[in-house]
Amino acid sequence: MTAWIDGQAVERDEAVAAAAALLAGARGPVIAGLCAETAAVQAAFDLARAVGASLDPAAGPGLYADLGALASGGAMTTTAAEARGRADLVLALGPAPWASGLLADLAAEAPARGRAAGQPRTLLALGGPGDGGIQHVAYPAGEAGLAAEIGLVRGLVAGRIADPHPLADLAARLRAALYAVVVYDPAEIGALGTEMLNGLVKDLNEVTRCFALPLGDPHQGRAVTQVAAWSTGQGPRVGFGRGYPEHDPWRFDAARQAESGEIDAALWLASLPAPLPAWIRTVPTVALLGAPKGDEARVVIGVGVPGEAFGAALWHPRRAAIAWQEAGSQEAGSQEADPIRSGAPAAAVILADIQTRIPAASAVSQPESSASC
Fold this sequence. Notes:
Rossmann fold; Dimethylsulfoxide Reductase, domain 2; 2 domains
């Protein structure tokens, strides 16, 4: 079986009907997770519009560390392909870049295009564990954290710190680079660190070329951001409670809404691996999962894993774009092939089926409660 209600196996049609009834009767529903193929994310936005729900991706904290800094001061970014082709200096911030595999690729070759073509590539690490198998220069981060260290580097680059400093060599290397790239994980350095980094990059571009390279999250957050942009013209955390999309990163944080009692029903979408939030146990929830056990939520429906059971458009971190991934690939997630799961329908199909069972006037007849207005 691939569908359950209250932990009991049922026919899929019965579970879909129960999911539609739960969402249609809610006054403040939320659709969260959004760790899925692009078609399913689009279907989730369509369903949210139909039932007056808000949306919040699993990748929300990291996304908004980046988006908030971008909105407040702008950003100068590049892609992994450009970094491989042009960068003569790469600075890795924190531990995350070392776990991504990107630095190993960058260390294996020298820049072949642009001003730095033919020059050796230098790898630097600030506050990360490094890798004994990759030649690099390491600079320890102080107890104040990465955001503070980035601020110190920015001050040193601008010449605002006159006294000798342990990070002065790092600042000098950045200024001397022909094409520098700073690799970071927004979720790791936070909103303040990202804002400070964007300022550092802009300062360096007064004297050389330098760009930030944010790592993609493992939960399709970058793809969700693009779907949100073309669907609503706004960021992913939007709500349709008043019949039109309203963007508010604080207001539509699903964890905050659950804690404050502002939501009374939820749909968790994760056809790809994503950790289940704790609030699923306290809010009546429909869960569409690529690897279900049956007891994760009130209603659980198994769906096909994109890139494994069927071809799908997914975020491609090396290309920094949404790209097609053929069926049978293991790149999308960590699950092993399962013949039962492989026969499950795509999440987009289930979401569309749920939407067809929602009364047309549902969002109007069940207005959003005042707690989340």
